[in-house]
């Protein structure tokens, strides 16, 4: 007898990590709003509401070089692959790319695995500014309450109607109390109802616009700045440097779940963007890649380039819970349980340490097994990592770094003038078409097709379910089968 | 430019559409403001259709069908009545006003009646002015 | 059938003293656990403001049942699955939602046992935690129980002290119950099989006032008495009257709030009201959260309201106008839509504005009885046409 199981979880949509109850009922997954969550008071954006269809897609099988394999076979193949790579690597590097959706324990396990094999780690957000942590925010109010009390707000490359809608109402409250809101980058039609001044510029102009207007801004400005794999890092650095010079503060909203945790766990020692990593793979400087919960072969904007670069590798490992439509022939694919089923902790954008309600281990188990299979040793037992994760979070959260100036990146991002707020096509569904249209037509079309694919699937399922519920239609279903 | 009402009329195939046809063949004049949509039965007029008509800028909506007791499907127009009452209440609370929704029965032989109902309703709407839901005139 | 009234309590002494109001509901659930596939209750997670739903599977687990938990406003009707015998403990709005779902053929009446709890209103968890620190000078960890009694909101601390404040004062300063609870006029869930509560019980006696509303409820109660799990006796005339009076006073207060919160919209002229509704709905970001959270909105994704984006170009989005239309005869006023709206649109007020005026016109109140047929579905001969 299958019984209902309710898991107190967090939404994997972005770094805010809204609380949500996941109802597991046999194979189906449903959500319920978690009204006691201090982060979101039960409120969710469209992605959160659509979580059941997100979680309905899972990777259940492992693959070795494009052929289905058991978990043990895949682990052994991975261990052998790493052993071989250690012998033949020469001066080349390896990289573990994890953009998010991993718990703190998994990040820590990956870090230790990286140290064991001497592989570098990357979060896909190039040029991480070291003071981006929430502890640099003033602590007079709660993290998001800061927005309500701000007198001047600048939105840098953030469209709150589309991305991070939960801060929208905070901005509205601030405006009711007389705050001045400036938006740079986002579409005029989308932000004109929350912003007094709108600079609807292309992404390559965001940093320049910021430089132009920064002298006119009040000294106590709150910057709300989007940071993700596609962000213009020169704008991000500009915001950081303004905060270092004045008493302004910045709130950096990140694209993926738990990408905030890359700071306390010092996961990212590579500090390169996805594009730069691709450059390195193409030039041969990187010869081994491990992708953890980063389904960029199918979801990166330039997914063809990503796939081609990865398929040229000899040592290529994928660890993820998202489905793969066609596993590459050179990859070892290890499936892990979906985000909500994992146990451990996560850190959200306010720096809170949050408990995940699941009871399974994700990538940390894979790391442990691979290291054992490769004949090496590392301190990777779950209880130990969990303790370390909590301790490291405490240490990181208690020290309050000051903003300090950082040199702007050598290269401006992005080089092509496209504009997207939703890097993940599963999130693209939540994107209204006018916004998508601002992206290059190609990206827009991809978004549309991917959206249609997901929606159609969900709708068809809904219809079948509706029919199944109603006894009168049982004949109809069997007729069409 | 004077205001010309935009009226959507939902007609049933068996009676009121016949009435409109009759009005046409017997050359009875009625205002050209009305856009006719034919249904197999007035009982098929989903309240959603009426709401959508108003959202798309209709100034008035007519629901027409067979007289009670004459329905081709026996009791299809009973449903029409219940929906009409439901919708009029909805329109009142929403603030569009139930007077912009009209229910009329016309048998296939009542071409004159159909024409006069349309004329009466058009005049009423012309007096009421454009629907508050109607945006810029962008037909 | 005239509803039977009893005072009930758990026969198990420790349960009677340890549980809330004589442990009646806990003992009843314990006796039911083998007969039902799902026994659904809210379980406390950490403080009394945090909870999640659990399906009890063994008698030991009934220990996790924690009273009514009025600060955990989870919509429970979502958790009932057709084809599974379910016993569920719920508040009146959940019960009304279940009744509406039975009418929509999503739940089978014979499969569910509804144990209703009297409800004077629920508190929104996060604002309630803030209220606790700002108004009561307590921390969420410090309190073990909350109760609404005689117009006061009372918190019991871990030390056993009771701290009480007038709800009117709290609500005047922006705290207190959820707004949809303030004007809710269903306080005793008589649409359930059993309606339980502590109104009209002798003080200090650890008893629950039970109203048996259906024959099925009577069978369940008789079985539980036969099995020795609970015991009942006839309540005194005087205290039964007090229970009715408490309910009456609450309903009167609800009417006042109804005037305060919805009256303004009712008094508007048509044009003004339309503009007000348009303006209220304008910040919608199209998350569909209200639809997901709505306990009576049970169409699948092929519903008409989903065919257009909520942020389409119409003056009021088709999504919202159709939801207002559909819910006019089925909104039970649970307030879930308001709770989950990321841009704080008071949707429940709008839906209730429509539903209540329709109720006063037709006399049909959704969710009160399975036998009530909504006017739109009657299809009977229309008089006067």
Structural class, from secondary structure content of chain B? alpha/beta
CATH class of chain B: Alpha Beta
Order of helices and strands of chain B: EHEHEHEH
Q: Give the CA-based shape of chain B.
A: globular
CATH architecture of the domain at 62-127 and 261-398 in chain A: 3-Layer(aba) Sandwich
Characterize the overall form of chain A. Answer: globular
Question: How are strands sequenced across the largest beta sheet of chain A?
Answer: 5-4-15-14-13-6-7
Q: Domain count of chain B, please report it.
A: 1
Oligomer state of the chains in this structure: heterotrimer
Euclidean distance between termini CA atoms of chain A: 27 Å
Number of helices of chain B: 4
Strand content of chain A: 15-25%
- The radius of gyration computed from the alpha-carbon positions of chain B, rounded to a whole number of angstroms, is 14 Å
Radius of gyration of chain A, whole Å: 22 Å
The averaged pLDDT of chain B comes out at: 91
Distance between the termini of chain B: 15 Å
Biggest interface pair, residues each? A-C, 46 and 49 residues
Classify the fold: give the CATH topology of chain B: Rossmann fold
What is the secondary structure topology, with strand pairs?
The complex is a heterotrimer of chains A (481), B (139) and C (385).
Chain A: E1 5-10, E2 19-25, E3 28-33, H1 46-49, H2 51-56, E4 62-64, E5 67-69, H3 71-88, E6 93-97, H4 104-117, E7 120-122, H5 145-149, E8 152-156, H6 168-176, E9 180-184, H7 188-191, E10 197-199, H8 206-213, E11 221-227, H9 233-245, E12 249-254, H10 274-283, E13 286-292, H11 296-299, H12 303-311, E14 315-320, E15 331-335, E16 343-347, E17 353-357, H13 363-373, H14 382-398, H15 425-428, H16 433-438, H17 441-469, H18 474-480
Parallel strand pairs in A: 6-7, 6-13, 8-9, 8-11, 9-10, 11-12, 13-14, 14-15
Antiparallel strand pairs in A: 1-2, 2-3, 4-5, 4-15, 16-17
Helix pairs in contact in A: 3-13, 4-13, 4-14, 8-9
Chain B: E1 7-12, H1 16-25, E2 34-39, H2 47-55, E3 60-65, H3 76-94, E4 101-105, H4 111-128
Parallel strand pairs in B: 1-2, 1-3, 3-4
Helix pairs in contact in B: 1-4
Chain C: E1 4-10, H1 13-18, H2 24-32, E2 38-45, E3 47-56, E4 86-90, H3 92-103, E5 112-117, H4 125-135, E6 143-149, E7 152-157, E8 162-166, H5 167-172, H6 179-182, E9 194-197, E10 208-212, H7 215-226, E11 230-233, H8 237-267, H9 270-281, H10 289-293, H11 318-327, H12 336-340, H13 347-362, H14 375-378
Parallel strand pairs in C: 2-4, 4-5, 5-9
Antiparallel strand pairs in C: 1-10, 1-11, 2-3, 6-7, 7-8, 9-10
